[in-house]
Amino acid sequence: MTSHRADASSFLDNRGYSGPLVRGVNPITLFEKAVRDRITDSYYWKEQCFGLNAATLCDRAVELSSIGGTYGVSEKPTPFLCLAFKLLQLNPDRNVILEYLNFSDPGSDDEGEDNGVVKDRGDFKYLRALAAFYVRITFDAAEVYKTLEPLLLDYRKIKRRIRDTFALTYMDQFVDDLLTKDRVCGTSLWKLPPRQQLEDLDMLDERVSPLEGELEELDRDSEDGKSDEGHENSDRESSGKGNEEDD
Question: What does the buried/exposed string (b/e) look like for 58-80 if buried means 16 or more CB atoms within 10 Å of the residue's CB?
Answer without folding.
Answer: bebbeebebbbbbbeeeebbbbb
